[in-house]
């Protein structure tokens, strides 16, 4: 016979044959069972996060068509006959083929978009795939969204993939643009066979096509960042003085995965370890005087979240100087957000945050740019940095992440992402606005 211990959501069977005597073996078994029950009772669950983004749809086929058409028109206006990319962020943007769907190898797998001019001077995109022949069936299964059939050009292992590419690219003496992230050996291979063409890195006009986000992209980014912030808050409730960095990091990864985010990551640093902006930590235990820094995120439909919180626990006793640093960083983040609007130089937004920190006496400890673009890449252009001549436009999405890092003592960074909204007269709107937005204090994040 067995007895059952009732634990919410779990059942633990306790054998009746275990003696209740004080024999050493019996006590040892009960001690182990007791420890297991305590562990199961205390094991946190983050299942409540799973529903937050469940109804957020991926990018539709019709939106991919618009992107392809915009690229074709841009190529035609620049006098280019084709654009070539490997699986990655840009290929995903135009053809839904990311490096997670097709991993890069030494064998070239290329996506080609070429402008085709019709009799009425309308420009339409023509999409082709250059694939190893033995991978052709898998390539067809990618189901690339396109209004017309995608052409597949297969190359054998004993032949040149670049000569095969000529059929898709043409040799009419015009420019061929390659994606800025394409590997050098592939760009060189194309240049070696396309003797009548200029093989050039794609210019700003092409790169900028994915900088300004659509409403659908904003909605995906919004939900991904919301649920990342909710995950941080949920993990904070499970933390305690004495917990190790690795234990906290494991909880964050679990929470992000429970929230439905792919490729979750976390930088979790306690106390003085946070003074290294991208430090790896020492797996130290959390002390009462320590601030905690989590920089974490993941992807939703390939779009990234990126949130940083520096915070304390209810039992923490944070030194006054460290609190002063925290509120200085918070004021800098707020100033930057207020200055970021349509038509503003990105350098001016960086300056707004830097001025606050400098005037507080911590300028030399703010050692990195203010922020970066966010989308299909965690770090993408444009960037919020000094010296930049880039202009903020509606649809841009940025991180706003000032920090102060005093090595050997304390590190504070606060990071929220915002988009520049046409509906709000070109002002910036936090992606996490619906779940509370910015932190208020180290105890209210």
TrEMBL record:
InterPro entries tied to this protein: Creatin/AminoP/Spt16_N, Creatinase/aminopeptidase-like, Pept_M24, Peptidase_M24B, Peptidase_M24B_aminopep-P_CS
Keyword annotations: Aminopeptidase, Hydrolase, Manganese, Metal-binding, Protease
Keyword tRNA processing: no
One example GO MF annotation: metal ion binding
UniProt keyword annotation of Translocase present: no
Cofactors named for this entry: Mn(2+)
Superkingdom to which the source organism belongs: Eukaryota
Pfam families xref list: Peptidase_M24 (PF00557)
Domain Peptidase M24: 219-421
Similarity comment: family membership: Belongs to the peptidase M24B family.
Protein name: Creatinase aminopeptidase
